[in-house]
Amino acid sequence: MLSNKRLVAVCAIAFCCNIAGLVLFMKYNSGEKCYATIDEQQKTRLRELAMALAPARLRLGGTMSERLIFSREDIPQVSCDHCPSNLTSKSTCHAVKKLCRHKFLPFFLMSGSKWNEINEFCKAAHLKLLFSFNVLLREHRNEWSDQNAIDIINYSKQKGYLVDWQLGNEPNSFQHVFNITISPHRLAKDFVKLRHILNENGYRNSLLVGPDTTRPQAHRPECLEYMVQFLGNVSHHIDVRAWHQYYLNSRTAKLEDFWNPDTFDLLKEQIETMNRHTKSYTHIPMWLSETSSSYGGGAPGLSNSYGGSPLWLDKLGLSAKNNITTVIRQSFYGGNYSLIDKDLEPLPDWWVSVLYKRVVGNKVLHIDCKCSRFQRMYAHCANRKYTNDTTAVTVYAINLEMAKARFLLNGSALHGDNLSIDEYIISAPSNNRKSKTILLNGWPLYYESPKLDLQPHQIKYGNHISMPPYSIGFWVIKNTSIKVCK
């Protein structure tokens, strides 16, 4: 899911499935300092694009979190053969020695100054940081070595940083990725230790999120087994049960796979499977803590184009419907599943995310749609920041067919002579689903300033909505008789 020279951090909107992502590139080789490849002008632009989706959550994690070592100081080159002995961060050299036992795997250093930049960026962009500790720093008896984590925690507390925490990334796959095994029982003990450390060092109110297993698959039952055994040993010490989800293999996926209803149904089956196997722990919120359309870095020209947007919107709707309270997008910048491109220009899923956040509220409503398998529809109370109308409802839908779809707004709550509808139709120019430019109500979308001018088409006194071929639609329906949105 990550290239072998990049650490990816992602952020998710901190309420029901409004999503963004953010990526921080860090170069690494054995012991090399990490640095962000963003200049001041880019930093301003990046902050603007992130703020458009705030309040949000930034996740600094992924596969390379297991290669990260913290050092308060900006120190010169460190290697397996050389580490300065006079460091303030006493755990740095200790951690280097531990990771150097795995000589075929590189490591990199994150300095205190870079940690400051990350936290200052989060504060400026109204993001809450979610950070994953390196769980592969192990003692000889396979116990987690917490010294480097304590350094980060103490440093963060001194600076007054607000952070939520994880420990490890996809631990059920460690044997495949790192040729290392950590049992769910052992990892649960490590989480208990971390919870005590957080409580004793000023982070009692911070969330502890885990175990970040991969999606459930029939041919890989170890994912579910790992999750269930982990929860059975740690449920009183974590705040969120989290897992990762992707639909497709980026190396083999084709455009039609992204628009196939069978692909869309995979997430529904996986959520139901995960819920069924963890039903004893429904008091613990569930997150998709890393997710996108296709794994392995994303499919070029597909997962970063309009071709991937229906899957993204459907994931938001289906997750909200199933009470998955946070969805963390992989990724905002970097890879072929990013929300913005290398020139910091928004890609289709960024626009879809912004519009979703603008018009969709937190409360999910039941909707009956006489749709074919090629149309999918969801309904929420409208976002109160969008309209003061407490009866307003937002309906959003996807049309996967090369044919127009038309729906009657039926039922007593949506019936009446004075319905007012704000309509937003997203489509691709000439139905080119691989386009990285999209149309809103027929006009191309370009980012020019933080004050986004997303104007709806207004429908007065109508009781029908319709969708062009291969389109996405949002409708804010006002003056209904619905009372539950008050």
Share in β-strands: 15-25%
Provide the CATH top-level class of the largest domain.
Alpha Beta
CATH fold type of the largest domain: TIM Barrel
Sum up the overall morphology in one term: globular
Strand order of the largest sheet: 1-3-6-7-8-9-11-13
So, CATH architecture of the largest domain? Alpha-Beta Barrel
> Uncertain spans, ≥5 residues at pLDDT below 50?
1-30
Summed up, the domain count is: 2
Radius of gyration of CA atoms, rounded to a whole number: 23 Å
Query: What is the CATH H-level superfamily of the largest domain?
Result: Glycosidases
Question: Into which percent range does the helicity of residues fall?
Answer: 25-40%
Total helix count?
11
Average pLDDT, to the nearest integer?
90
User: How is the main sheet built?
Assistant: 8 strands, mixed
Class of secondary structure makeup: alpha/beta
Total E-strand runs: 23
**Roughly how many Å apart are the termini?**
42 Å
Structure description:
By secondary structure, the protein is α/β, with parallel strands linked by helices. It folds into 2 domains: 337 residues, Alpha-Beta Barrel (TIM Barrel), CATH 3.20.20; 114 residues, Golgi alpha-mannosidase II (Immunoglobulin-like, Sandwich). Helix content is 27%, strand content 23%. The protein contains 11 helices and 23 strands. Strands 1-3-6-7-8-9-11-13 form an 8-stranded mixed beta sheet. Strands 14, 15, 16, 18, 19, 20, 21 and 23 form an 8-stranded antiparallel beta sheet that branches. Strands 2-5-4 form a 3-stranded parallel beta sheet. Helix 4 links the parallel strand 6 and strand 7. Helix 6 crosses helix 7 and helix 9 runs parallel beside helix 10. 49% of the residues are buried.
